[in-house]
Design brief:
This protein is mainly β. Helices cover about 5% and strands about 40% of the residues. A hairpin with a 2-residue loop joins strand 3 (about 40) and strand 4.
Length: about 280
Amino acid sequence: MNHTRIFKILAVLFAVVLCFGPVGLADPIGTAFTYQGRLIDTNQPAHGSYDFQFKLFDANSGGNKLGADVNQPEVNVIDGYFTVELDFGSAFDGNNRWLEIGVRPGVQNDQNIYTTLSPRQKVTPAPYAVYALGGGGGSGSLWQVNGTSIYYNNGNIGIGTTGPNYKLDVNGNVNATAYYGDGSHLTGTSAGFGAWASKSTNTVYQAATDGFVLAGLTGDNMYVNGLSDSFNPPTTVRIQDQCYNASNKQAGITMPVRKNDYWEVTTNGSTYVWWIPLGN
């Protein structure tokens, strides 16, 4: 291959199309990632052997070179496609990174210098999966791997805070589908009884929070029922009491109600009703 042919090939390399493949992780976590591209030669997919040189920078032009150059000699290009593995160590720290790529025909003992492609290619998220799982990447990572899980045994972890005071310290709202435990160690919550609110009998209400209904009456041959469920009006009698003859002229109920359920106190007498929400 003569120099004229070489420069014709290199001139069209600026049209190369780049994409990043998935990260392959082992135990321990490595810092390598797969790079795939396509090489076009005179408007046709290239075929044969080429040398590639990759450099990593912290800017799309100028800037600082990070880590050592990665040379990939004699890369087999088939129908324009090639795949290489790149490893710049722990250079990925969450900030933007760009690849500068040099190419030359892959002739053994070839002395032609690399032709640098322009512009530099911005690194897409694939290598950052290494950074994320590695807790910053490199052998100094705080995270350890156990199968498909990662863990950290020392110190505290903060989300939304730079000064965590607990094993997990979250500054913000937390959405969870379940909580496991008896709640005996929960502190600093707004749980507790809110302000009591007087309510009416034979009237349907919907609970804005979890809470309790208290109801009582005094009389003779009277009843008080507590109903609650997800229907409006509720149809499930949860608790009931009654006053009968001279020996029992007082009755009362206490009924827990779940948030968003409907509830009602029915009676044939004069009854006081209180709604007591959980939380302030």
